[in-house]
Amino acid sequence: SRYTIVDKDTCIACGACGAQAPDVFDYDEEGLAEVILDENTGTSPVSDALEDDLLDAFEGCPSDSIKVSSSPFHGALNT
Ligand code: F3S
């Protein structure tokens, strides 16, 4: 499985990820992306059915703000 998390410090609210992977990413009130599955903590595995969407979004993010790993993140970035 893959885990994902958005670095909101570098996200520029471009909106590409939610278009590419609407079941993985949504936006907060500022338009910054966040992972729907686990409130952007990177702790819930992305289902196999959503993996292609996830990887497309990962590759398409213009600011490299989408992090993807085969192991869980620990609830926050930059801490
Ligand atoms: Fe932000 Fe990248 Fe998505 S800039 S809105 S995380 S495609």
Explain what you see.
The protein has 79 residues and is α+β, with helices and mostly antiparallel strands. The protein contains 2 helices and 4 strands, in the order βαββαβ. The strands form 2 sheets. Strands 1-4 form a two-stranded antiparallel ribbon. The longest helix is centred in the C-terminal third of the chain and has 10 residues, at 51-60. It is globular. Residues 6, 11-17, 33, 61-63, 65-66 line the site of FE3-S4 cluster.
Topology at a glance:
Elements: E1 3-6, H1 16-20, E2 25-27, E3 33-35, H2 51-60, E4 66-69
Antiparallel strand pairs: 1-4, 2-3
The structure holds FE3-S4 cluster.
Cofactor: [4Fe-4S] cluster
Function: Ferredoxins are iron-sulfur proteins that transfer electrons in a wide variety of metabolic reactions.
Domain 4Fe-4S ferredoxin-type: 2-30
Based on CA atoms alone, the radius of gyration comes out at 11 Å
Amount of helix? 10-25%
**Biggest pleated-sheet summary:** 2 strands, antiparallel
Coarse structural class: alpha+beta
Q: β content, as a range? A: 15-25%
Ligands: FE3-S4 cluster
What is the count of DSSP helices, taking H or I runs of 4+ residues? 2
The beta-strand count equals 4
InterPro entries: 3Fe4S_ferredoxin, 4Fe4S_Fe-S-bd, ET_Ferredoxin
Domain 4Fe-4S ferredoxin-type: 2-30
Organism: Salibacterium lacus
Protein name: Ferredoxin
